[in-house]
Each structure stands twice: as structure tokens, then as C-alpha cells.
Design a protein that fits this description.
The protein is α/β, with parallel strands linked by helices. The protein is built from twelve helices and seven strands. The chain has a seven-stranded parallel sheet with strand order 3-2-4-1-5-6-7, sandwiched between helices. The chain starts with a strand and ends in a 9-residue tail after the last helix.
């Protein structure tokens, strides 16, 4: 079984790119080597943090060919980061992917969503669910950056129906100090890179900066990452994503 994980093109600011970064570093630290496709032709967020990601122009018809051919050419684990947006453009593009044909070749699709306390973030994700239905498995990252009460996802009838019908996997992203988040974004660094760095440099030779070098800051980042990784363990095991998926 091969797997294609893709981000639901939710509204900007929900933290989907943050969620994907943790997923990628988790997989790599557990022996997998996913192929990364950056389909966000506006921000290229994935490429900023992972320069090896293949940039794909989503507006070109050939972008479907790249996704499908990469899947069929032996890449058993693919992560595709789509651009944000509450409209239909990205969703309509994704719906043109030949799901049935690819699934018949033993490929499994996983939809990655990130939601916040904003009602728009939840509704834009449910627009994807309405279109995709049972053709995919869902992993929902509950981002607590704006508060830990997400009524539109935790308590609404639509959300309750979604959880009952599709049995999504869920991961909670705790709130991280805004100063740390800003510094990670400014330097295009993952938490994993910071923790693996030494002498003020990341493994890629990037300057980590004075704030992220501090002992207490690194300890907090380590606890933050450990908490997220612990939640990913049972999910990715159930999805059969492990070192056996490495290329």
C-alpha cells in the first residue's frame, strides 16, 4: 500500500503548514523518506522549510500528471501541500485527480486538515469533506493558537456528524509562545532542526539565532514536539506509515 497525504486548502492562518512540518520531521525521524510536493504557488511555504520539495505549478494541467506519475514511479509515500483558500479553485483542481484509478493500484489518500477557533476554518474544511466523502481518510489537527475552545468543531451538529461518519484521527497542536513561532517562521526553521542543531547552526548550516539557542527555550520546544509526536504515534501506525514506507 502506498499513501498520498495532502493538505485540505483551508483558509490561511489555520496552521496547516505547521502541522505538515511536524508530520514530515516525525516521519523522517522514524525512518521514512516521503516525497514532498509543494503545490502552493503563492507562498511556497513547504519549500521554504524543505528546499528539496518539488515545486509544482498547480494552475498547469500537467500538475496532475506530476502527482500521478510520481505516485506510480515508486514513490510509496507522498506529501502534497496545497495552497490555502476558502474558495473552490484548489478543491476543484484536486477533484480532477483520478482517485478511483489510483486507488485501484493500491494507493491510499489521507486528507490533512488544520482548524482553529475560527468558524471559517472549520466550514472551509467541511466543504472539502462534502466533496471528498469516503474517498480519503481524515487527520484533523486542532490548532489551539487562538484558544482551546473550538465550538464549531467540538459541538456543532455538522461536526458531530462528521466524526461519527468518518472517524477522523485527531491531533492537538498546543499553543506555542508567539515569540518562538515568529522566530521559527522568520528563519525558516522547523522545531526539529533547532533541536538537532549545535553551535548556533542547524543541520543545514542555518543560523538558529540567539533566542532559539537558549537552554530553556530548547527545553520548551522539545516538550512541545514530544507532545505532538506522541499523538502521531498511534495515528501513523494505524495508517501503516512507518520505516517500511521509506523509499
Amino acid at each position: 500500500m502506498s499513501t498520498i497525504l495532502f493538505t485540505a486548502g483551508a483558509k490561511g492562518g489555520t496552521g496547516k503548514s505547521t502541522a505538515v512540518r511536524f508530520l514530515i520531521t516525525y516521519l523522517r525521524e522514524h525512518g521514512a523518506d516521503p516525497l514532498l510536493l509543494d503545490l502552493d504557488d503563492e507562498n511556497r511555504t513547504l519549500s521554504r522549510f524543505f528546499p528539496e520539495a518539488l515545486k509544482v505549478e498547480i494552475k498547469k494541467k500537467s500538475s496532475h500528471d506530476i502527482l500521478v506519475e510520481r505516485a506510480l514511479s515508486g514513490n510509496s509515500l507522498i506529501i502534497a501541500d496545497l495552497k490555502a483558500g476558502t474558495g473552490r479553485e484548489v478543491l476543484d483542481w484536486w477533484l480532477d485527480v483520478p482517485f478511483e484509478e489510483i486507488q485501484s493500484l493500491h494507493f491510499h489518500f489521507v486528507c490533512l486538515a488544520s482548524i482553529t477557533s475560527s468558524p471559517d476554518s472549520v466550514q472551509s474544511f467541511f466543504n472539502w469533506v462534502t466533496a471528498l466523502q469516503h474517498r480519503v481518510t481524515y487527520v484533523v489537527f486542532k490548532n489551539l493558537k487562538d484558544g482551546d475552545f473550538l465550538p464549531d468543531y467540538d459541538a456543532s451538529n455538522e461536526a458531530l456528524s462528521f466524526r461519527e461518519r468518518f472517524k477522523p484521527h485527531q491531533v492537538v497542536l498546543p499553543r506555542l509562545d508567539e515569540e518562538y513561532t515568529t522566530e521559527l517562521e522568520r528563519l525558516d526553521l522547523t522545531v526539529s532542526e533547532v533541536l538537532d542543531g549545535s553551535n548556533g547552526k542547524s543541520a543545514r548550516g542555518k543560523d538558529i539565532g540567539p533566542l532559539l539557542c537558549q537552554l530553556m527555550v530548547r527545553a520548551r520546544l522539545r516538550r512541545f514536539q514530544r507532545d505532538i509526536y506522541a499523538q502521531l504515534d498511534p495515528i501513523l501506525d494505524s495508517l501503516k506509515l512507518s520505516s517500511s514506507s521509506s523509499q
